[in-house]
Amino acid sequence: MTGDSAAERKMQFLFALRSKGVTDARVLGAMEKIDRGVFIKGHFAPRAYEDMPLPIACGQTISQPSVVAIMTQALDVQPRDKVLEIGTGSGYQAAILSRLARRVYTVERHRRLAAEAQARFEALALTNVTAIAADGSFGLPEQAPFDRILVTAAAEDPPGPLLAQLRVGGIMIVPVGQSDTVQRLIKVTRTETGLDYDELREVRFVPLVEGLGND
Ligand code: SAH
Which family does it belong to (predicted)? Predict the structure, then answer.
């Protein structure tokens, strides 16, 4: 029998991340501090510590913890960084980023999700992260450029406005491909002379959709 005390659950949660190849101590520390249970309400709340994506409001999903950890590790966030996330969803990924970066902006096309995420940041006293309701395909020009950009919805190509808002030396992680198939996680690095592309692994995300949602 596996135990179900909070401490044992946390140990199992972190063990699952390590076994999926998450080695960065800062990332593991942030994942330990931010309680995923706060980001999942209702029916699926008891499964918050399992390594699987789960449904949230507005027909969206909170990503699988090991995928959150692997994307965060690939982003290589530095303590002075200003980070942009596209696809706030529950706010879980943004909360993790807020423990690693100086400042985080996260953009969500569903106003309801952005508002609920913002309320969670405030309840957790995470004061360096802001959720904004907007179409994130255009980035956040008023706060650009960014040191790091993380897209948590799949685009057919990395959106041009996001590439344009990446500082020289900056890194963007983005799932690329059709929404109904397996997508590839791409790491884009802006150099002095252009953009470098690395393919990391296969992933599955909900699609990046244009325009604001109805709710
Ligand atoms: N990072 C989230 C999970 C992302 S699910 C978490 O930690 O819970 C992907 C999210 O991207 C969904 O909430 C979806 O509504 C949002 N999304 C899709 N297209 C978007 C767009 N153009 N701009 C902003 N958000 C978008």
Answer: Belongs to the methyltransferase superfamily. L-isoaspartyl/D-aspartyl protein methyltransferase family.
Tens-digit pLDDT profile for residues 63-79: 999 999 999 999 999 99
Task: Tell me if 108 CB under 6 Å of ligand 1.
Answer: yes
Which CATH number is associated with domain 3-203?
A: 3.40.50.150
Model pTM score = 0.96
| CB of 136 closer than 6 angstroms to any ligand 1 atom | yes
Domain boundaries, the chain: 3-203
Q: Is 135 in the pocket of ligand 1 (CB under 6 A)?
A: yes
Q: Can you give the chain as a three-state secondary structure string?
A: CCCCCHHHHHHHHHHHHHHCCCCCHHHHHHHHHCCHHHHCCHHHHHHCCCCCCEECHHHCEECCHHHHHHHHHHHCCCCCCEEEEECCCCCHHHHHHHHHCCEEEEEECCHHHHHHHHHHHHHCCCCCEEEEECCHHHCCHHHCCEEEEEECCEECCCCHHHHHCEEEEEEEEEEECCCCCCEEEEEEEECCCCEEEEEEEEECCCECCCCCCCC
Answer yes or no: 63 catalytic: yes
* Per-residue pLDDT tens over the stretch 163-194: 999 999 999 999 999 877 889 999 999 999 99
